[in-house]
Amino acid sequence: MSGLLSTSLTGLRAAQRSLEAVQHNISNVNTEGYSRQRVELGARPAQFTGDGYIGQGVNINNVTRSYDQFINKQLSSSLSAFGEVDRYHQLATRVDNIMADAGTGIAPVMKRFFNAVNELANDPSSIPSRQVLLAETDALTQSFNTMSGRFEDIRALNNNDIAVMVDEINSLATSIADLNVQIVNDLGKTQGFRQPNDLLDKRDALISSLSEIVNVSVVQQNDGMTSVFIGNGQALVLNGGAAAFTTLQSEFDPGRLEIGIKTVNGIMEMTDQISGGSLGGSLRFRDEVLDPAQQKLGRVAVGLAMDFNAVHKSGFDLSGAAGLDLFNFSGVEVPVIQSSSNSGSAAVTVNFQDTNPLASGSLDFSDFNLKYVNSGGGVDYTLTRIRDNKVINLTATDTVPPTGVYSLSFAATQPSNFDPTDFTLSTSISPGAFTQAVSSGTAAVAQEEQIGAFTTAVSNGADTFTMNIDGIPFYTEPGSVGGTVTGAELDTALNAFLAQPANAGAYTKVSGSFSGGDLVLRKFSGTAISVNITSNFATTPGAFAANTVNVAGSVAVAATGGPFTLEVDGLQIYTEAASIGGTVTKNELDAALNTFLTTGRGAGVYVKTGSFATNDLVLSKAGSASTLTISSNFSGVGSTPGAFSGSTTGVTAVPAGIDITVDLSGGKTISVGDQFVTRPTYSAAQKIGVNIDDPKKIAAATNVEVDPVTKLPVFPASIIKGAMPNDNRNAILLAGLENRLGMLGGSASFSDAYGQIVSGVGTLTRTAEVGASAQETLLNQAKDSRESLVGVNLDEEAANLIKFQQAYQASAQSISMAKSLFDTLIGAVR
């Protein structure tokens, strides 16, 4: 009788627990992360009787949850992947909308700006046209400022989200660690035989939430705890403890948040180890979209300013004054941040290469790290391009005479893995003033004549004073009452006479002056010099105290003289054979160089600013070596081979279109390992502005007399003094910048460069959109897989409810039957 009752009671208890589990499942059908539970039953050991083994009912072995470690890992991975690409796509879309929108984009504003330049070229004297150009210039700079400001707004929002996500990671990690402790305690109550299913579900849900923020690795431990690792194995949760993550400002960029973890030795920066999840998406968006877009936008702003300013400064404004910069940059032109760990006190300055005509094409959007290494062999510094960690070596050169301010240039020795195609290099030659070359050929020994003191000529009215040398008039003065001709006036006229190319090849002043009464002239042909005065000044006609005196003989002799040749990198620019009194003038070199650059072998290879005539020529080419060579055999008495006052060896500029100087003057020091970070284009779009507010100061004119054949300035006195209001030649040059391929290594115009930014951001955004869609599909599949395994099916639970209800009722009926049998037995005994 007792066996029947005992067996029925076990069945009743099993059915009751099963009903409770079913009701628990039904109650949590909408609970996120809940896993369906079931009561695991097992038959109790049978009891042996004489009639055989009789069953003793049912045992409740455990209450388990539906769980698959592989499916959970797959879900965690999918949550992390989708969280990253979805966050990336959301943020990239904001940048894409800003840049591509016609209302906020730069392209339409830049087009209106160049339209205004063209209007000015059509009517250079028009004040309204000049006012429109200034207004469009201001609108263009404001557009750059506004777009850069919008980028900063997105950066601030992203930084705030990063900080919030770091706090969420810390909160989730602490909760997981606390659950680890609870789970171990609960397992200990049953010696590990019974699982606290709801706590396990809660921990899994927290890990899933954590995976949405950052990619993690989960390791199940034998004691029931779960360890969570992040990055390259950095423990986030270990046993019952959780690490504390924090945000910190970048050493070289206060606006850039880095991720760090607190350790016993301080905070360890580990941003580069973060991947996956919305945090990884925010960091990747910053590195791949936001920073490059802002830096590339700054590159367009800088390139436009550099090229436009260079042309504008070469022109003249409405009043005839030399042009000024049209654009400027507020504050420090290029910011430089020194490392807080530097032990030296050196001051590093970075400026854009305004004198390098290829500088805008060399501009790089990256930030750069300058480090003092003092490696010897001309390697004083290294410059690392931060976006890809490419390194070049730099040489420091002090000024002459030394001032302690060093200019950095491309070193002759570069790293073994240096690839020049990784950088846009340019080399410039600044030869300085050219000393006119004079040939001897079959020349004569020069004739030198000493001219006596000049008596001042005095006019009494309508008369004329004229002086000539060898029949060539070099000074004429109409008479006027009391008018005079002095030795000083003749000296001025003589200097102008000798500066003319034709005369410079025939005469030279050896010493003295008219005013000093000791002038000595040299004539290269060897014939006598005739200095004649024709004067009807009645008061005092003017005269020399003595006739010219022959100082040197005039016997013609033969002399061997080879040609004069000017070359750059072995390419001939100009050559001239020797001839009696032959000369090589600055204008001749300019004309030859112009042909060399336009239709000769230098076309498309070299570019120039300035000229030989104005002593400010800068000849540049892409690459890392260049030499200007004079080969001259001009010789003999009165001959000069020709020379330059400056260096004829090219200097390879620092890449990125920047010049770097290190100031060690006044006791400043620098130590090996000292570092500086410069950000040439990062904030340029935000800082660009207009330097001119007076429309009259727009330099539309050239104010230069140009040879109609060579198209080069006429020398000397080529600059026209005073206003040339209808001169539009410089305005035409400014307008031509619109389509000039000067950006991106000479392959793009300003509009092209901006268009590439827009298309690049658009491509990344579209790729992210496709990736987000694909990852969402994979995530849904992972969720479906988990749901099919652990999800609560109400139809199934309803069927189980009926099943276990019937089992419960049957067990209860068995108990009732046992009671009835027991009552019958008791009655029989009575």
3D structure, described in words:
It is a single chain. By secondary structure, the protein is α+β, with helices and mostly antiparallel strands. The protein has 14 helices and 43 strands. Strands 13-42-15-16-17-18-41-14 form an 8-stranded antiparallel β-sheet, with no helix packed on it. A 4-stranded antiparallel β-sheet has the order 5-6-7-8. The protein has a 4-stranded antiparallel β-sheet with strand order 36-37-19-40, with no helix packed on it. Helix 5 (197-213) packs parallel to helix 6. The model is unreliable at 547-560 (pLDDT under 50).
How would the global form be characterised? rod-shaped
- Indicate the mean pLDDT: 84
The portion of residues forming beta strands comes to 15-25%
> Numbering strands along the chain, what is their spatial order in the largest sheet?
13-42-15-16-17-18-41-14
Which stretches are poorly predicted, pLDDT < 50 over at least 5 residues? 547-560
For the secondary structure, the number of strands is 43
Query: What percent of residues adopt helix (DSSP H or I)?
Result: 25-40%
Distance from N terminus to C terminus (CA atoms, Å) equals 18 Å
